[in-house]
Amino acid sequence: MISVRAPATSANLGSGFDVFGVALDRPGDVVRVEKADETTIEVTGMGSEYIPEEPAKNTAGVVANALDAPAHIHIDKGIRPSSGLGSSAASAAGAAVALAELYDRDLSGEDLVRVAAEGEAAVSGEAHADNVAPAILGGFTVVRDDGITQVDASLPLVACLPETVVSTRDARGVVPDSASMDHVVETVGSAATLAVGMERDDPVLVGRGFRESVVTPARAELIDGYAAACEAAEGAGATGVTVSGAGPGVVATCYPGRRRDVASALVDAFEDAGVEARAFCTEVGDGAEFV
Ligand SMILES: Nc1ncnc2c1ncn2[C@@H]1O[C@H](COP(=O)(O)OP(=O)(O)O)[C@@H](O)[C@H]1O
Ligand SMILES: N[C@@H](CCOP(=O)(O)O)C(=O)O
């Protein structure tokens, strides 16, 4: 039996829609695989009641099919589905790494990302690899058609999960079809600032680089209490706050000593808006690993 822990991830980071992603040190999914004549899936843990066990509908099952690697797959979910923290991607990434090892397939990190992205496409409608890339490679990743760039950043993060469900498929439906030149200029400036901030492990530059005015405001409309939560987090020391992935999760960065204050501010602000929420103090972490 092969067992792999794959981390939660936060995609987009404001200015990098479908391009940027980071691995979070916690939480994560654990995927265990054993060879079998045909693929079967069992899911336990956080939100497992909402996750299909039919292989064609589960991201891990789609990966097993893509790799022609039938297995009994057990997924212990540490990441709530439809959270904006790459829950479906973690299972896809964990399955890709575990099944490649089980069947002795000689695949590069980028090959594994491509296979795991097929699992993501099955649930979100499009093959975006900005969650599976950091879930496999770790750190901060930049995904483009011509390759993936990875940086081992060290950065404090707070992830907050309001008890609202937003599916990635639905949240992709509200993304505007076009952007003005002013917005393009702003996004390029933010994305460049964020990438330099990741290289320098600088929470001020990274937080400034979250700023984006096309996709983020459209998604924020789906998250009750979002504006108040951002304001409260910034008041508590966050150097930047944005929607995590497609939402409803929110991600903030700050100096290391401010994480607890930022986490409490986010939770309290959502609760004041009538939305239950929980927050994790975390940091940029490693990719999928054997356990
Ligand atoms: N192994 C899996 N883990 C989590 N969600 C899965 C899995 N397989 C299929 N899904 C489905 O994917 C959807 C959640 O994915 P998505 O909307 O992209 O949110 P998230 O941000 O949590 O990845 C849910 O409909 C869920 O049932
Ligand atoms: N780039 C994607 C990222 C979705 O992330 P998830 O964690 O919400 O699945 C998007 O913004 O649609």
From TrEMBL:
Organism superkingdom: Archaea
Annotated positions binding ATP? R80, P81, S82, S83, G84, L85, G86, S87, S88, A89, A90
Main localization (coarse): cytoplasm
Q: Name one GO cellular component term.
A: cytoplasm
- Write down the InterPro entries for this protein, in alphabetical order: GHMP_kinase_C_dom, GHMP_kinase_C_sf, GHMP_kinase_N_dom, Homoserine_kinase, Ribosomal_Su5_D2-typ_SF, Ribsml_uS5_D2-typ_fold_subgr
Under the GO molecular function aspect, what terms does this record hold?
ATP binding; homoserine kinase activity
A Pfam family in this protein? GHMP_kinases_N
Which major enzyme category is it?
transferase
Q: Where is the GHMP kinase C-terminal domain?
A: 197-271
The EC number on file is: 2.7.1.39
* Keyword set, alphabetical order: Amino-acid biosynthesis, ATP-binding, Cytoplasm, Kinase, Nucleotide-binding, Threonine biosynthesis, Transferase
The record's catalysed reaction(s) read: L-homoserine + ATP = O-phospho-L-homoserine + ADP + H(+)
> Where is this protein localized, as stated in its record?
Cytoplasm
Q: Which GO terms describe its biological process?
A: threonine biosynthetic process
Q: In which pathway does it act?
A: Amino-acid biosynthesis; L-threonine biosynthesis; L-threonine from L-aspartate: step 4/5
List each copy of the GHMP kinase N-terminal domain by range. 60-139
Family affiliation: Belongs to the GHMP kinase family. Homoserine kinase subfamily.
Q: Which PANTHER family match?
A: HOMOSERINE KINASE, HOMOSERINE/4-DIPHOSPHOCYTIDYL-2-C-METHYL-D-ERYTHRITOL KINASE
Task: Explain the purpose of this protein.
Answer: Catalyzes the ATP-dependent phosphorylation of L-homoserine to L-homoserine phosphate.
This chain belongs to the protein called Homoserine kinase
The taxonomy runs: Archaea, Methanobacteriati, Methanobacteriota, Stenosarchaea group, Halobacteria
